[in-house]
Amino acid sequence: MCTTQAVQDSPDCSTLLNTCDLSYQSSQRFSTAIVSLAPFSGTWDRQKAAHLLRRTVLGPRIDEINRAQRDGLSRTLDLLLSQAPIPSPPVKYRTDDDEYLQMGETWVDKSCLGKNQYRSHSLKGWYYNNMVQADRPSNIQERMSFFWLNYFSISAPNSDPRAMYKDIRLYQEFAVGNFRTLLQKITVDPRMLRCLNGDVNSKENPNENYARELMELFTLGKGPQVGPGDYTTYTEDDVAALARALTGWKIKPYRFAKDNTPVESYFDSSDHDTGDKKLSPRLGSQVIKNAGAEEYKVIIDILLKQDAAALHFCRELYRYFVFHDINPTIEAQVIEPLARTLRDNNYEIKPVLKQLLSSEHFYEAAHTGAIIKNPHDFLCSIVRPFREFWHDKPMQDLRMRYELGGKYADYMYDLGMEFLDPPTISGWKAYYDSPQFYRHWISPALMQRRVQISTAIIDGDFHINGTRLSIDYYSFLKDFTNPTDINSLIDEIVLVFLPRPISTQQIAALRETIMGGLEDKEWTMSCRDFLANPGNDNYAKPIQSRMARFFVDLFALGEFQLQ
Fold first, then answer.
1. Which of 10, 232, 411, 443 falls 20 to 30 Å from 135 in CA-CA distance?
2. pLDDT tens digit string along 488-515?
3. Domain encompassing residue 558
4. Number of other CB atoms surrounding residue 152 within 10 Å
5. What is the value of pTM for the model shown?
6. Which of 282, 305, 328 is the last residue of a domain?
7. Residue 279's Cα: distance from chain center in Å?
């Protein structure tokens, strides 16, 4: 058992880090793992269903796991990959700012008249509440929204919140949409133009920043350098040519504007290089003719015709959903077939995800618990299975709801994930920096902070503006198969919160935490009375106290940091 005190007594957290750090197993992993995209043909049980949902839904509940097992793999994937409704936009939630808007009115399409400092806080609260809100349908939308946030990694300090919202909404809309179309929209997106100097890319002084990252990070990937300025997939001459082709795009003066200037970019034909742009043999020695405002689409079409583009994108999907280590066998038997599927479907992403998530390879035991949770996953896997805190009467207050989301954002900052602000254009190191990869999310200090946050949420110290919020253990317990049987309950809780079974010693320690030496029948009677008398504190307090102690210990386990 690993308790908060155990973490404090072991400052280097070596035991926890060793549990979390599975990268050392990678060499053994491929000697036994099934490396095949053949459709999964094993037994579709709750463990397999839970594994799928942990990788696609942020913090699956027991009822969602049970439904996925009943529905079967194909039906579950259809639901997960369906187009989800776009959440309603963020709103004004405080009365002390922005006298030009009414409470509950959205600001995403309004000018910045008056005081409006709350808008960035409103966006944070809205974003995190969307992630953890349990009554939304089980869907991959929010998981993919973060994938895109990291994939394009727009870093634009002091951004107008309206522009930031526009990008999030784009990621939600294209969660499993068409990569070509999304890439086109991002290329002329106001924040991306500003982030990589596209708005100052002119025919008189071409700026190569976006052209370089478009190839290196967003499409082709940078291959090994084989000559001066030659990176196998593209050359420095291609960077210069694409920069010229991208000239002429500007940003309207929308940033914190007091008028109705929209958050938009526009094309200035007078600042566009109309000459021919000759590409290197790496890109087929093609010549890009002047296409004016449509020339950026010509560029994207050329890049996506290269085999390297589909391969690069599928590697990023694989690292996000399966594991970071891609050896020659994985490349040949998983990445290349996925890339063919992507090209054959005109860069539609849904067929690729369905092929990967329904494969024998995805459900191989070596992949279960092989990823260290990022801070988003860590938070959501704590609160969402409990249906979060929206059952509390204080959550009926608009400001309380938004400030709850803001508190989550503060927690993420503590854990190394600044809201909507990746550290570099390459994204978070966990998804590209070898050999550490996911281990970047864990350090002795970060592990200790994780335990402190989970303890605060569970153990009675979670409050908003002085109002204490508590877990609804009544609703939580009644969803389980047999909550009055302590052994059955612990087994199902482990299924929900941990990616794989734990040792009998760990189970025994957790059982002792909740039972405190009592016989099984004592739990049976107490839990039965609790469920039969909702709202009665005489029955509720003993159960709540025991459950809180249990979950403090459970969330401090190294295994809880994995998915």
1. 411
2. 999 999 999 999 999 999 999 999 999 9
3. 1-21+444-563
4. 24
5. 0.94
6. 305
7. 36
